[in-house]
TrEMBL record:
Organism of derivation: Amycolatopsis minnesotensis
Organism domain of life: Bacteria
Keyword flag Oxidoreductase: yes
Annotated keywords: NAD, Oxidoreductase
Signal peptide location: none
Protein name: D-2-hydroxyacid dehydrogenase
Keyword Signal listed: no
Residue ranges occupied by any D-isomer specific 2-hydroxyacid dehydrogenase NAD-binding domain in the UniProt entry: 127-300
Alphabetical list of PROSITE patterns matching this protein: D_2_HYDROXYACID_DH_3
Transmembrane segments annotated in the record for this chain: none
InterPro entries (alphabetical): D-isomer_DH_CS, D-isomer_DH_NAD-bd, NAD(P)-bd_dom_sf
Length: 342
């Protein structure tokens, strides 16, 4: 039967009731932006859409939680109400907003949306590298001033890049940069040679010793206790002054004050930043006005139609979950990400 929407008379939640006694209860944390294309799921479950304030009420008696608002930090505070939860899916590749001790220590299965943003983020990284090399930002500034100022640009052919983070997004970045003519290496948990995408992969613990070799340093590592703050004053000091730093991973990978100092002191030639320790980036941050710094508002992966694709990934796993099949993108909660093959 068709579902019926029942208004709970709150400003932050409503539920879709499905006729049938065997229907699972699904809580969806979505805030004001409800996920699109949920009709098939609403036909098969009691769906409770909620904002942060109503999450605890929506979790009571829920079998599964879809964290569509992947930037929300509301789940830990409402976790006490999760009395029947078996599965949590987050609409992002990063899982740090929901990777708190209560979830880690529970039997709740955690899945993510790995694979949705890989190619889009790779295109962003290539785009900012070309922007730096070809002086595109400077050209736009001069155009606004009606100034004709001839300049020479750099080649990217043969330049060296290291991608810190060897998961699917890192691999997509490596493949695209390699196709564009850059010489690419990786940094990950385990050192190895002859990787199909990176060639040489350095162990993250030895990264500082290799940073002086690279023209572009691309951060895409997941946020864990081991990676938090890994790009600090020592890391920036190890890079050559002509290097550019790109962060499309997590803002907390970087000690922002150390990055600002390194840029001001000429230890780096530039930075392209899509993620920040504090989001939105405060209006008084010096990063906004520093030359050779490109700021984007956490959008490197957000292509036209990405919200629909996120729901498609969840819907596929929801069907698998209903049928007792293995779920895709199961996160190892002790690691903080979906393990990849060596």
């Amino acid at each position: 039967m068709a579902p019926r929407i029942v208004d709970n008379h709150t400003t932050d939640s409503y539920r879709v009731n499905v006729i049938g006694t065997d229907s699972p209860v699904l809580a969806v944390l979505c805030g004001d932006k409800h996920p699109p294309d949920m009709h098939s799921i609403e036909q098969a479950a009691e769906v409770r859409y909620t904002g942060a304030d109503g999450l605890a009420g929506a979790l009571a008696g829920a079998d599964a939680l879809f964290v569509y608002d992947f930037l929300s930090t509301a789940v830990p505070g409402a976790w006490h109400a999760a009395d029947r939860l078996r599965w949590l899916h987050i609409a992002s590749a990063g899982v740090d907003p929901v990777l708190f001790p209560g979830l880690v220590d529970s039997d709740v299965v955690l899945t993510n949306s790995r694979g949705v943003f890989d190619d889009s983020i790779a295109e962003y990284v290539l785009g900012v590298i070309l922007t730096f090399a070809k002086g595109i930002a400077r050209s736009l500034d001069l155009q606004r001033e009606n100034r004709w100022l001839h300049r020479e640009s750099e080649r990217i052919q043969g330049k060296r890049a290291i991608v810190v983070g060897t998961g699917p997004i890192g691999r997509s970045i490596a493949r695209l940069l390699r196709a564009a003519g850059l010489r690419v290496s990786g940094a990950g948990r385990r050192a190895r040679e002859d990787d199909p995408d990176f060639g040489t992969v350095h162990a993250s613990g030895t990264l500082a010793g290799h940073l002086p070799e690279f023209d572009y340093v691309v951060a895409v590592a997941p946020l864990t206790e081991q990676t938090k703050g890994m790009f600090d004053a020592a890391a920036f000091a190890a890079m050559k002054p002509s290097a550019r730093f790109v962060n499309v991973g997590r803002g907390e990978l970087v000690v922002t004050g150390d990055l600002v100092t390194a840029l001001r002191d000429g230890q780096l030639a530039g930075a392209a930043l899509d993620v920040f320790e504090t989001e939105p980036l405060p209006t008084d941050s010096p990063l906004w006005t520093m030359s050779e710094v490109l700021v984007s508002p956490h959008m490197s992966g957000d292509f036209v139609g990405w919200r629909n694709t996120l729901v498609e990934v969840f819907a596929d796993n929801f069907q698998r979950w209903r049928e007792g099949q293995p779920l895709r993108n199961v996160v190892d909660k002790s690691l903080g990400y979906v393990p990849s093959a060596p």
